[in-house]
Amino acid sequence: MQKLELYIHIPFCVQKCAYCDFLSAPANDAAKAEYVDALKKEIQRYREVASSYQVSSVFVGGGTPSILSCEQMGEIFKMLRQVFTIDRDAEITIEANPGTVTEEKLEGWKQAGINRISFGLQSVNNEELKMLGRIHTYEEFRESYDMARQAGFDNINIDLISAIPGQTVKSWEHTLRTVAELHPEHISAYSLIIEEGTRFYQWYGKGQTDQEKYPPLPDEDAERQMYERTEGILEEYGFHRYEISNYAREGKECRHNLGYWSRVEYLGIGLGASSFISNTRYHLCTDMISYIERIGSGEDLREEIEVLTKEDAMEEFMFLGLRRMQGISGTQFENCFGNTIEEIYGDVIEKLEQEKMLEVKEDKIRLTKRGIDVSNYVFCEFLL
Ligand code: SF4
């Protein structure tokens, strides 16, 4: 049977963070209950699809999945297991916001088969957390983290953000070291991007004139130093970089994400969730009212359906695969597409190698340090 990854979207949060443009919003208990019912109905729609697949990983993301009660999460997983065949050793991750974790929920997650927690911490500095609009302090995160360890979770990721307004290089280093000393299995470290539609965009977006009212964003030089020191500091603590923004202890790389970068098929369930299945990409409707109505009436939830051409698939193979530090294999490219990588990308690879952006060793092609720094430029070169 073919391998499939599942993504389940929970679009609720206690409050909206200042930098966040994800599909999520605060909601009352009735709205959450209605959504969970709809989600269970949606899962049942996939009985036929599910029969040809074996699920290798499940990722419950959001939003804040940990906002749901343990009964609700239990019901979702009961339905998933009724419909899908999930590998016995599947990696099953839940995203958790430290302000919403309880012993009871942790116990419920274990019973549901969840074996990995991804904590959205972002910073150990409480001023920075406040600036981001997070609902928790570092101390509250520590309580949640310790509770998760006590409950037996031995695979934990911690998400961090650099280049927060008011943040200094020293403060970022302190965050990295403090978190690394907790010995999580995995750390994701992203640089803040000011996205349209967020509070930060109103404060710091293009053309804003009253920026002096708010703490300044770190300047380019500070941002670069934060970025450059991340890998070295995390290496000191035994984490290796396996993707542009992701670091793990040996053997603890996120299997769900590795699958995504290797173009394993995945099915997204829930409001706005994206899928890549049967060579087609699409996302589900993003409007809650429409989602609930369409579930009720049995209507199709899919939007922006795109069947990939061979060229699309080759481009994706390159820029998703090159995100991984191990790079891509020429043999695998040929097995997938029936053309050698030299036939399609020979000139581009040669040019990027001369520019010291790519390193070619036997069958493997990967980004150099310089290539990682300007990865978006490199990826654009592979557009056909
Ligand atoms: S908790 Fe996460 S999903 Fe929710 S608003 Fe904050 S950043 Fe966005």
TrEMBL record:
<dbReference type="GO" id="GO:0006779">
    <property type="term" value="P:porphyrin-containing compound biosynthetic process"/>
</dbReference>
<dbReference type="InterPro" id="IPR006638">
    <property type="entry name" value="Elp3/MiaA/NifB-like_rSAM"/>
</dbReference>
<dbReference type="InterPro" id="IPR013785">
    <property type="entry name" value="Aldolase_TIM"/>
</dbReference>
<keyword id="KW-0143">Chaperone</keyword>
<dbReference type="InterPro" id="IPR034505">
    <property type="entry name" value="Coproporphyrinogen-III_oxidase"/>
</dbReference>
<dbReference type="GO" id="GO:0051539">
    <property type="term" value="F:4 iron, 4 sulfur cluster binding"/>
</dbReference>
<dbReference type="InterPro" id="IPR004559">
    <property type="entry name" value="HemW-like"/>
</dbReference>
<keyword id="KW-0949">S-adenosyl-L-methionine</keyword>
<dbReference type="Pfam" id="PF06969">
    <property type="entry name" value="HemN_C"/>
</dbReference>
<dbReference type="InterPro" id="IPR010723">
    <property type="entry name" value="HemN_C"/>
</dbReference>
<comment type="similarity">
    <text>Belongs to the anaerobic coproporphyrinogen-III oxidase family. HemW subfamily.</text>
</comment>
<dbReference type="GO" id="GO:0004109">
    <property type="term" value="F:coproporphyrinogen oxidase activity"/>
</dbReference>
<keyword id="KW-0349">Heme</keyword>
<dbReference type="GO" id="GO:0005737">
    <property type="term" value="C:cytoplasm"/>
</dbReference>
<protein>
    <recommendedName>
        <fullName>Heme chaperone HemW</fullName>
    </recommendedName>
</protein>
<dbReference type="GO" id="GO:0046872">
    <property type="term" value="F:metal ion binding"/>
</dbReference>
<keyword id="KW-0411">Iron-sulfur</keyword>
<keyword id="KW-0004">4Fe-4S</keyword>
<keyword id="KW-0408">Iron</keyword>
<comment type="function">
    <text>Probably acts as a heme chaperone, transferring heme to an unknown acceptor. Binds one molecule of heme per monomer, possibly covalently. Binds 1 [4Fe-4S] cluster. The cluster is coordinated with 3 cysteines and an exchangeable S-adenosyl-L-methionine.</text>
</comment>
<feature type="domain" description="Radical SAM core">
    <location>
        <begin position="1"/>
        <end position="240"/>
    </location>
</feature>
<dbReference type="InterPro" id="IPR058240">
    <property type="entry name" value="rSAM_sf"/>
</dbReference>
<keyword id="KW-0963">Cytoplasm</keyword>
<keyword id="KW-0479">Metal-binding</keyword>
<dbReference type="Pfam" id="PF04055">
    <property type="entry name" value="Radical_SAM"/>
</dbReference>
<dbReference type="InterPro" id="IPR007197">
    <property type="entry name" value="rSAM"/>
</dbReference>
